[in-house]
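Progress report, Aim 2. The chain analyzed during this reporting quarter is listed below.
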Amino acid sequence: MNFRPGILAVVKGCPVAGCNDQVVELVSPAAPFAEFGAAWNCTNARMRESGFDALPIPESMLRPIGGLPVHDEQRDEVTA
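Predicted structure tokens for the chain:
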């Protein structure tokens, strides 16, 4: 999967049962803060601690968790 650096994302709690980590949920650049359907682990501890709800996320800071989008019906949009 390829993501452009600077795509907007929202920091949320991890949707995986039993996981207390923070995740980054991608949002469409064309419709800011609308759910785009994939949850990702944030590897930047400074961002998690910053308290910001939304930040531009470089591709280098994202990695998949669990391998499946949060909204399976949007899987094709996410992986296209």
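Residues 9 and 26 are 4 Å apart (CA to CA). The chain has one domain: 7-79. These observations will guide the mutagenesis work planned for the next reporting period.
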